[in-house]
Amino acid sequence: MIFKQNKNRKWLTLIYLTAFFLLELMVITNNSFLMSFDHSIQNLFGDITTPFNTELFSTITFLGSPIMDVIYLIVIILFLFKQDKKIASLWIGFLLISGNIISFLVKISVKRERPLQKIIPASGYSFPSGHTFGTTILVLTIIVFILPQIKNQSLKTTLNLVMILWLIVVSISRIYLRGHFPSDVIGSILLASTWWEFSELLYLRYSESIYDFLKLKSNDE
């Protein structure tokens, strides 16, 4: 089993999902409080706009782009598969494909326009942020499947913090470059966390059928 039973998982899924839907509703209805929040945060970033910061955050946003996240996750999938962790690699593959489909469907259903005065070109709709969604999935994957293999506890703790910091800086880069509103990146983290927890529930519900179909034992992942 790649996940253990946890009675709190259903509640976490419900909390994340409820928070996301409330935020999505505020976006769709152009809630005045949310718009004021977004614009106030954007104004703060406007005060620190410099050529150096623009170059820095442009590099970060490239490294945290959806395409790069897919590449990182494929490398992780291949790494786990080579370690005979077949179920884990298949689960991540399912999460990657289904998660990107869900994120895209939300984008085209909400149809939120991107912020004005973008520093670098960005096409498509704004809510949720594909960069932040993919990076959240990537960070959770590394924390759950890769870092536990490290025996040095202090190194593991440091890398956990680095992963969380990476998610933060990628999110900040999208706001700084005006590719997204702050609420877009918050919504992405909530959506990715919801789908992660729900996918764990799916695995726990159907794991026996999956192992039987693939003729694997529960300790073969």
Automatic annotation (TrEMBL):
Bilayer-spanning residue ranges: 12-36, 56-81, 88-110, 130-147, 159-179
Gene3D superfamilies referenced in this protein's UniProt entry, alphabetically: Phosphatidic acid phosphatase type 2/haloperoxidase
Domain Phosphatidic acid phosphatase type 2/haloperoxidase: 89-200
InterPro entries: PAP2/HPO, PAP2/HPO_sf
SMART domains: acidPPc
Highest taxon, organism lineage: Bacteria
Keyword field: Membrane, Transmembrane, Transmembrane helix
Name recorded for this polypeptide: Phosphatase PAP2 family protein
